[in-house]
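Hi R.,

Here are the chain sequences for the assembly we discussed:
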Amino acid sequence: MLHVLAAQDSGELVQGLTAVGRGIVYGGAAIGPGISIGIVVGNAITAMARQPEAAGMVRTTMFLGIAFTEALALFGFVLAFIISG
Amino acid sequence: MADDAPVAAPELDIARDLVRRAIPLGLVVIVLSALVWRADGAWTAAFAMAIIIVNLLAAAGLMAWAARISPNALMAAVMGGFIVRMAIVALAIFAVKDASWVELPLLAFTLLFGQLGLLAMETRYVSGSLAFPGLKPGVVTKEARPS
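And here is the predicted structure of the full complex:
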């Protein structure tokens, strides 16, 4: 493994590691909010099923929760591009 | 379930109100960015605010449309919409990332703090009661405005 790494041109290695890092940042930025939004929406639908008269209020809270969570994804996407230089 | 409790679209009201408040906030952000990064900063901040507004309007519109159909459709629309909207945002950023007028760090911080700031401001005007789902009664919306 070390021989392979040593044989690589340092520029290519940096490029490769940058691409890996970009993928990790981009993926992490999407997975975290994705899981969170799933939890928010799942619980909101449970709440609407239990108490249909509160559907409007639940949807309001759900929309704000989703929007707050998405800020992290938006930030992560740009960070991934910043890493690429 | 959606038929049992027909409600208006509170998320659309909130999104419209967010856009109304985003205009002065966006102008402040653009002016501040222009002071530091000149014209490039102003364009970058304007682009970031546009992404935030379009993203919020698209999310609200999709949710309001799906909520009229069924809870399953709402779940599918929110999760599928998240993937599609984030892909569109990523494509939009990818398309301009090498443009001469784009300052990527400013874009990242404007996206983060613009969205969080707008939402934090909006929470003051959101009602948490069954009587007024959505915005508080004093906040003027398109529906509530006298004709």
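Residues 10-67 of chain B form the longest helix (58 residues). Chain B touches chain A through 49 residues (CB under 8 Å).

Let me know if anything looks off.

Best,
T.
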